[in-house]
């Protein structure tokens, strides 16, 4: 299966690790063989490839694994017992049977290629096996491999089925590709939001300047974030702040009510009355929302911390613009008529009358009459219903199944059923080399760099 899925995929021969071997005194370069149970059986049985092994060879290696498993389980069988240069065991492993240390095959099969239940102290059933292919990280090859085989999610050969893959940074490459492909959906959502804003404000100018205020708030927040606070890391998550800034339409609503309640009043009085009623509610809403975001500063996750800071600053910037810059926008809107809309005043009046007759009347009926009546008339029903829902939510959160922290140390990019997530979510912990507590498995290289700082101080 590995030969069909990986080795026959285009560009594999250009991206694999190679070795130099001789055939009839002719030296050739070829891709290294994969680490697989089949290849190790062929090596231990003296076959040229796994295609040549027989059931007798499989039975022989199975017997060998059974004999050597106790040495592996008590850590007597080490990771590197075989000297490939001289084709003999290292002195530290001389006490072990030769078959157990030859080519490090038994150790590699049990440690890397078979699941941890296979010949464990409590069982000997083999369910999962891994194949480690000698492919160098190559973006084009990874993408081609995904499109040809992994994307389908069903790769099998006889009774053997491919259930998971982990191929360098393939998951992150495909996430970037799909993210760019899905950008059309937030674009459609943004267009719909603009249409709703235009429909609600009844003014193209107000809609445009509302969007301009959002963009300006984001730019000012970016300046404070990068220059004033000196934060150089700007995660992609910060862009989603745009969603929280597109909902501030309360000022235009209060402005409209002030005009209706004070017919013939001057723009100065309407502006003062609007600020009197709208500024406090906008301040409370903006301040509490910004405080909730900035509270993420205590998070240990850098992306969440940066997002909280940027979102909180952007919301406060938007509030500042809504109580200083936007009132002037509303005054200008009252005195300025967009040329193309003024030229068709009769059509505009007809549309406005239809809007007032049907849409506005229906909305006022729902929110001013129907909804209050339903809430007040059935108030005890709503109290009992939402109290039960609250108790049910507490039961689910605290007891069964309870609040559960992430169980995987790997960052999940796709849905749990996605073929690129299966290995890390379901199968990674089934192999010894992924869960080994051995010290050698936990070591990693650390590089420390030092230097001399130039100084003009003279030392005598």
UniProtKB/TrEMBL annotation:
Pfam family for this entry, one: Sterol-sensing
Listed InterPro entries: Dispatched_Hh_regulator, HMGCR/SNAP/NPC1-like_SSD, SSD
GO cellular component: membrane
Ranges of residues in domain SSD: 203-332
GO biological process: smoothened signaling pathway
Membrane spanning residue stretches: 177-200, 206-229, 236-255, 275-295, 307-326, 380-399
Keyword vocabulary terms for this entry: Glycoprotein, Membrane, Transmembrane, Transmembrane helix
GO MF annotations in UniProt: transmembrane transporter activity
Family of this protein: Belongs to the dispatched family.
PANTHER family: PROTEIN DISPATCHED, PROTEIN DISPATCHED-RELATED
Protein name (Swiss-Prot/TrEMBL): Protein dispatched 1
Organism: Desmophyllum pertusum
């Amino acid at each position: 299966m590995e030969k069909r899925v990986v080795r026959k995929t285009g560009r594999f021969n250009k991206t694999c690790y190679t070795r130099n071997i001789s055939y009839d005194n002719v030296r050739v370069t070829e891709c290294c063989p994969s680490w697989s149970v089949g290849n190790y059986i062929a090596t231990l049985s003296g076959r040229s490839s796994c295609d040549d092994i027989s059931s007798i060879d499989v039975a022989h290696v199975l017997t060998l694994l059974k004999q050597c498993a106790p040495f592996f389980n008590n850590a007597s069988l080490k990771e590197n017992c075989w000297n490939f240069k001289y084709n003999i065991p290292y002195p530290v492993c001389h006490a072990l049977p030769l078959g157990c240390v030859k080519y490090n095959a038994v150790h590699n099969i049990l440690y890397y290629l078979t699941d941890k239940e296979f010949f464990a102290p409590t069982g000997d059933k083999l369910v999962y096996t891994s194949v480690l292919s000698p492919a160098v990280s190559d973006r084009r090859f990874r993408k081609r491999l995904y499109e040809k085989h992994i994307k389908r999610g069903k790769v099998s050969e006889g009774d053997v089925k491919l259930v998971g893959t982990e191929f360098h940074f393939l998951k992150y490459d495909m996430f970037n590709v799909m993210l760019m492909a899905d950008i059309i959906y937030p674009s459609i959502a943004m267009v719909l939001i603009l249409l709703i804003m235009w429909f609600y404000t009844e003014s193209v100018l107000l809609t445009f300047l509302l969007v301009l205020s959002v963009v300006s708030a984001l730019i000012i927040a970016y300046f404070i974030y990068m220059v004033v606070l000196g934060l150089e890391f700007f995660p992609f998550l910060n862009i989603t702040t745009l969603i929280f800034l597109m909902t501030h339409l309360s000022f235009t609503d209060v402005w409209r009510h002030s005009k209706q309640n004070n017919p013939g009043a001057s723009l100065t009085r309407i502006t003062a009355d609007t600020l009197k009623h709208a500024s406090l509610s906008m301040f409370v809403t903006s301040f509490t929302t910004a405080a909730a975001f900035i509270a993420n500063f205590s998070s240990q996750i850098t992306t969440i911390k940066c997002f909280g800071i940027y979102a909180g600053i952007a919301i406060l910037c938007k509030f500042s613009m809504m109580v200083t810059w936007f009132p002037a926008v509303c005054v200008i809107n009252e005195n300025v008529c967009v040329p193309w809309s003024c030229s068709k005043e009769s059509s505009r009046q007809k549309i406005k009358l239809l809007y007032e007759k049907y849409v506005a009347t229906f909305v006022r009926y729902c929110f001013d009459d129907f909804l209050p009546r339903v809430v007040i008339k059935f108030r005890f029903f709503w109290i009992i219903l939402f109290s039960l829902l609250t108790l049910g939510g507490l039961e689910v959160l605290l007891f069964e199944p309870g609040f559960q922290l992430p169980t995987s140390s790997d960052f999940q990019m796709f849905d749990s059923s996605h073929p690129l997530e299966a290995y890390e979510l379901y199968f990674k912990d089934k192999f010894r080399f992924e869960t080994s507590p051995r010290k050698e498995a936990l070591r990693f290289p650390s590089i420390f760099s030092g230097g001399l700082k130039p100084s003009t101080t003279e030392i005598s």
